[in-house]
Amino acid sequence: MRRYIAADFGAGSGRVIVGTVVGGKVELEEMHRFPNRQVYLGGTLYWDFLALFEELKTGLKKAFAKYDGIVSIGVDTWGVDFGLLDSRGRLLSNPVCYRDKRTNGILGKVFEAIPESELYRLTGNQFMEINTAFQLYSMVRKDDPLLKAADKLLFTPDLFNYFLTGVAVNEYTISTTSQLYRHATGGWAEEVLSKLGIPRHLMQEIVPSGTVVGGLLPEIAAETGGKGVQVVAVGSHDTASALASIQAEEENWAFISSGTWSLMGIETERPILTPEAMACDFTNEGTVNGKIRFLRNITGLWLLQNVARELESKGEKCRYAEMIAEAEQSGLQSVVDVDAPCFNKPESMCEAIVDYCIQRGMQPPRTKGEFMRCIVLSLATKYGEVKRMLEKCSGRKIDTVYIVGGGSQNSLLNKMTEELTGVRVVTGAVEATAIGNILCQQSVMGKGCF
Q1: What whole-number distance in Å separates Cα of residue 108 and Cα of residue 113?
Q2: For 68-120, how does the pLDDT look when each residue is reduced to its tens digit (9 = 90+)?
Q3: Which of 26, 179, 276, 391 sits 20 to 30 Å CA-CA off 296?
Q4: What's CA 196's distance to the chain center, in Å?
């Protein structure tokens, strides 16, 4: 039996999972789970890549020790972030986290160099300060010496693949999150790189999802026990892998990948690059089958995660099932804009939500159940708004919304989403990202057809 390893890195945690495809269904077994933390050092917020790579190897050791027949590994992560290598392939610095403050206020400066209408026409990405292009432009403006020392830029999943195989490539789906990919040519947006002063030589060859990057380096294979195992560039952006898990039966369907972020959109044959799409903050990103995810990035369960963490630090137990039960009994109708800047990096999420409500004459939440209701109602309201925008920009009527990821377990959110979008909601797999990751590997290494 062929087995595959999905290494799935989220903003809060990572997992190494062994998967098999039996009778058309993916069976998963979690081998190793670990936290993913950001480290604030010297005024900069970093990802601890070295620790994450060590955790990955620990997971691989456990998998290879338990199972024979593992043929490949696929890595998926969040988007936009990257690491820089020097000419000898050495990591110059831990990757900077997208929530770092270095891009605060950068959009206005970017639009002085390249008009927003032109930038959207070229790249089709939603304008978010976290995007790769804007992170790099902040480095250009500060004459960051790392850029002068750098020889290669690898997005986070590509960075894992490089230190597993020694091969440096940029996978398609993760590249399309950068605001540096040009859909019209299927390559890097040369005009954007030039106008923002981003060194062209940093960008590597873009390979399609399902590309076999290479075998494990001899030292990695010896350390982990993975001799002969290949590394596959799967849908390296976690949303691309999550979308690949959906087996939709309808034509007019949309998806929500629900986690720390909520990504809501549709799959299209071609990018939608109209002024209307730009005004509605939609982004065009790649799918594992070479199509387009036309979607909106929405701040998701980030609010709820922070509220629960904050309340627990004060000694209050925050089990989601209990919070949902309390929320269902609450009559609170206050709705916040989950994408408001005040919720990006507040010192206290609870206070930020309370202040937002008070300033707008709404009843603020006070109990954990009321916080749950306020956040869930606000998310469902946003989904309703985005659904209507999707229909307007695409000319397609949406009849069904598939919800995958951890947020699909929130019954109250599912119910409110159905009410406020006015369409049928179908919940998919909690482990959608790992399933899509495994399916992509099977299409290359197994006998299946993806």
Answers
A1: 9
A2: 999 999 999 999 999 999 999 999 999 999 999 999 999 999 999 999 999 99
A3: 26
A4: 25
Q: For residues 440 and 155, give the distance between their C-alpha atoms in angstroms, rounded to a whole number.
A: 19
Rounded to an integer, what distance in angstroms lies between the CA atom of residue 437 and that of residue 4?
9
% of residues, the chain, pLDDT over 90: 94
Largest CA distance in the chain: 63
| Enclosing H/E stretch for 40 | strand 38-41
Whole-angstrom Cα distance, residue 58 to residue 320? 30
Contact 201, 151 (CB under 8 A): yes
CA distance 425 to 171: 31
DSSP string for residues in 311-371: HHHTT----HHHHHHHHHH--------TT-GGGTS-S-HHHHHHHHHHHTT-PPP-SHHHH
CA–CA distance, 275 with 267 (Å, rounded to integer): 19
Q: Give pLDDT, residue 448.
A: 43
How far apart, in whole angstroms, are the C-alpha atoms of residue 99 and residue 345?
Answer: 8
* DSSP letter for each residue of 67-79: -S-EEEEEEEB-S
Residues acting as catalytic residues: 238
Distance in angstroms (rounded) separating the CA atoms of residues 233 and 217: 16
Q: CA 75, CA 90: separation in Å to the nearest integer?
A: 20
Beta bridge partner(s), residue 109: none
Q: Dihedral through CA 283, CA 288, CA 290, CA 294, nearest 10?
A: -20
Confidence of residue 250 (pLDDT cuts 50, 70, 90): confident
Q: How far apart are CA 243 and CA 91, in angstroms?
A: 31
Give yes or no for residue 341 having a pLDDT over 50. yes
Q: What residues have CB less than 8 Å from 20, skipping those under 6 apart?
A: 1, 2, 3, 4, 26, 27
How does 80-96 read in b/e, with b if 16+ C-beta sit within 10 Å? bbbbbbeeeeebeebbb
Three-state DSSP class for 194? helix
The residue written with tokens 């109209």 in the block is: 274
**Parallel, antiparallel, or unpaired: how do β-strands 424-427 and 400-404 relate?**
parallel
